[in-house]
Amino acid sequence: MILHVDANSAYLGWTAAALLEKGYPVDLRKIPAVIAGDPADRHGIILAASIPAKERGVHTACSLYEAFRLCPNLQVFPPDYDLFLSCSEAMYRILLEYTPLVQRYSIDECFLDYGGCRRRFGDPVETAFSIKERIKAELGFTVNVGVGPNKVTAKMAGELKKPDRVHTLITKEELKQKLWPLPAGKLFMAGKASVRKLEKINITTIGQIACADPAFLRQRLNFHGMLLWSYANGIDYDRVVPMERIEQKGFSNSMTLPCDVEDAETAKAYILSLTERIAGRLRRQGSKASLIGITLKTGAFFHYSHQLKLPFYTDDTTTIYRYAVKLFGECWRGEPLRQIGVHLGDLAAKDAYQLSFDELSHLQSDEALNTAVDRIRERFGQRAIYRGTFVNTQMKPLEGGVNDGNYMMMGGYKQ
Amino acid sequence: MKIVARPIDVVASFCTGKKPVPRKFRFYGPQGERDEVRVDKILQIEESRIAGIEAIVYTCQSAFLGEERLYQLKYIVARCSWELYKV
Questions:
Q1: Contact A21 B3 (CB under 8 A)
Q2: What's the rounded Cα separation, in Å, for the pair A125 and A248?
Q3: What is the pTM of this model?
């Protein structure tokens, strides 16, 4: 049996709990309130909204301007990522008391494999209630717990009615009663594009996906159609794997620039600061990459990308930067830039790949330099050592990621 | 008791293997008057993890602001700081 624990309106709930503890007179969860980035540096989007705000049409990822139009008496609070990490960590610590098989799916979601602890803790539904109550009493925020025979059913159960509830999707009958009447878009992995394709073939509910011919869905939506059919029928064989045993297959870092950039030199400096971050992450995992890519978003929100497969593997910041700049030069058409991103793929373990004669001459010195920089940053802070380009500028020497890279993203990775 | 969560200066003793014990604290009243309060009795010690913030909450009793009062002091472990938590 699998349990899925999901904090309700996580950022808002955590901020509310912390503010109440400091004597703040109202509970943010009970008034129209949101957590949003700072519009001054072009991050003015809603990160989390309270249930009263959601009832007025405010939703995650809408702009602050739009939110104020929908709800003029909205209260806005800034995100405190250190608080979010400590709340997430505290929740994870409680869950670890039940089983070591806990997968941190994101900052506010965890899966627990309850298979091995039934004899110790008893009925999974009773345990789900006790986890929910413990988190509420000890940490001051509410969670939804979903119980199901696999990860998808547990997650879908957890998403049913919120907040502060336990739901089960254990039997086929429960699946038919609780899940099948819901709109297709509520199914895990059914995004906007899939819903549009499903609507074209008159499929609007999860039940209709479940009862459709899987071969027909495959024909219309390729492999994803089969996946949706399996999920709608509660079929999923994915195991709960603690995060430290999962290896990342790719890395990406991007940033929205404080103002539109129109000159190549400034854009290259931002690419360097993004490369510093992403190369450090790559080395921390002990991997090397042979695919380098760059993504650009223009001031008119036009989005394009360009990538290159290298004939060798590298984890060297300077080499990655050199190729990222080459890609930038090839694809940038001179428009004002709003967002820049760098991504790395086709990874290999650092000590298990084919060397080339060319890299033998500089491999050891590059590795020694990168290791020294990484160790200095690990010991004395991210900005203890940085490139001269960034001296006396407003730019940060390392860019990308949330909270200076000290944050957990979807999938449970630090960015 | 109401939450005030005001930072305070505290004299406390830290003994090996035990929780810190507050001895006295400096408190500023509503009109800004300074008062030094000796912690007469510690009635209860509880650990708290609200919003993931590890803290130790002491329910104490002393005479201050002209009367015998129950109040709570809080030691926030990660910040090594004290608060007059509830009065």
A1: yes
A2: 33
A3: 0.79
